[in-house]
Amino acid sequence: MTRRSMLVLCAIGFVVSGCTLGPNYKRPEVKAPPAYRGATAEVPAPSAKSLGELGWWTIFQDPELQELVRTALVENYDLRITVTRILQAQGQLTVVRSQQFPTVNGSVAAPYSRYTGGDKPALYEQFTPQGGIDIAWELDFWGRLRRGTEAARADLLASEEVRNAVVTILVAEVAQAYFDLRALDQSLEISRRTLASRQQSLDLVKARLEGGVAALIDVLQAESLVYTAAAAIPEAERRIERTENAINVLLGRPPGPVKRGRPLTQQAMLPEVPIGVPSQILERRPDIRQAEQQLIAANAQIGAAMAQLYPQVFITGFAGVGGAVINGSSFGPMGVFNALPSITLPIFNMGRLQAQVEQAEARTQEALERYRQTIQQAFREVADGLVEQRKRRETRIQQEGLTRTSLDMSEVAKLRYEGGVSSYLEVQDAERQLFSAELDLTQAQRDELAAIVSLYKALGGGWQTEEAPAKQ
């Protein structure tokens, strides 16, 4: 083949390479409800900014919590591992895309041949040194390589969405663990305050016993209250230390203490921002975006598999300079050029290539169903988050009322006992109710904050990469 013929064939390859087999990706239609179950009756415009679009530093305003999240976003090992997977996907994309272009290698060779006839001198001797470049190229007539690049690019984007999903989960886990820690701190404070108060009551009852105005049973009942409060303190301390250890693991640190900021009662509640409409979640939740990229990759593999059914065209060649020494006579230097176009046509493979197409189509269908399933799960998580946040808030409000009433009952019971109207059993019962009510209120406050975290995560918030305001 002449050089001109090779150039003509390459030109034809460029023209024909516009043919790409397989279906082009089109986002599937998804039946999204007009509004989330449990959302307000007023549906905001699709362009309105929703809760999930707010940065985590806007939702969680405790400066110490913000610092913990920032540290986790740099040091967390799960996140670091995810970044390495993105780098792997970037490398794979480069490898796959490079197959669309010619491979050019430099080469130097110096073959030597010598033929003899028994004891006679050499009949023929040849030395042909040469150097130049080797070229190998597959002409992508049917788009097999382009479809492979399309799939690799989608895999890269999917890995980036995995990172965003890990960031979302990480932000939520740090915030949740921090709220757990502040709730335990508050429980410990309640237990210590209750223990001090009950110790004072025990001293008072003992004094009344010595004065002959109290019975021994009153002292024993007062002591039981003291022991109850005292037993709650080491349990709270144990849970605090374990929670601190869990936070440090999220931060990529060894176990140790964690700095505190605002108390539990001063943590930010849910801001007055629209929840948004279900169609917005398709563009915001990383897991949905990941599932769509996986669908795109699977769809592209159909075309790559279909292209295997058609001929494959390869061009290999060499261009360079060389010389020759034949039986002592030198020739050259001279130009060296050769080209070897080849076509591979599948004839018989026992249905293997067609089965690969069907396999790719089945994988695409599986990816489609996973995409739809992920969307439905997202709708459910948002609806669950809405009812959780609303009902947890109602529970907290009722628990606040119960705690106030229990405090009043405790004070009245003490006055009645000191006035001789009732026994210490009434004080004991009121004290138990108050202690339980205060601890339950702490739990209710913590549960409401946890519901806000879950709702924010369900709406696809938390992976935003904007810098939080500097700590004052």
Descriptors:
472 residues, 6-stranded antiparallel sheet, 6 strands, alpha+beta, elongated, 10 helices, Outer membrane efflux proteins (OEP)
Brief summary:
The chain has 472 residues and is of the alpha+beta class. It is built from ten helices and six strands; from the N terminus they run ααααββββααααββαα.
Describe the model.
The chain is an alpha+beta fold. The protein has a single domain (21-98, 141-310, 353-458), classed as Outer membrane efflux proteins (OEP) (Up-down Bundle), CATH 1.20.1600.10. 61% of the residues lie in helices and 12% in strands. It has helices spanning 3-16, 56-59, 63-75, 77-98, 144-210, 216-250, 278-284, 286-307, 352-418, 424-458; strands spanning 103-109, 112-115, 124-127, 130-139, 312-326, 329-344. Strands 1, 2, 3, 4, 5 and 6 form a six-stranded antiparallel sheet that branches. The chain is elongated. The two termini are 75 Å apart. Mean pLDDT is 87; it is low at 5-9 and 468-472.
List how many beta strands DSSP finds.
6
Percentage beta strand: 5-15%
Q: Please report the number of helical segments.
A: 10
Structural class: alpha+beta
CATH architecture: Up-down Bundle
Describe the protein's topology:
Layout: H1 3-16, H2 56-59, H3 63-75, H4 77-98, E1 103-109, E2 112-115, E3 124-127, E4 130-139, H5 144-210, H6 216-250, H7 278-284, H8 286-307, E5 312-326, E6 329-344, H9 352-418, H10 424-458
Antiparallel strand pairs: 1-4, 2-3, 3-5, 4-5, 5-6
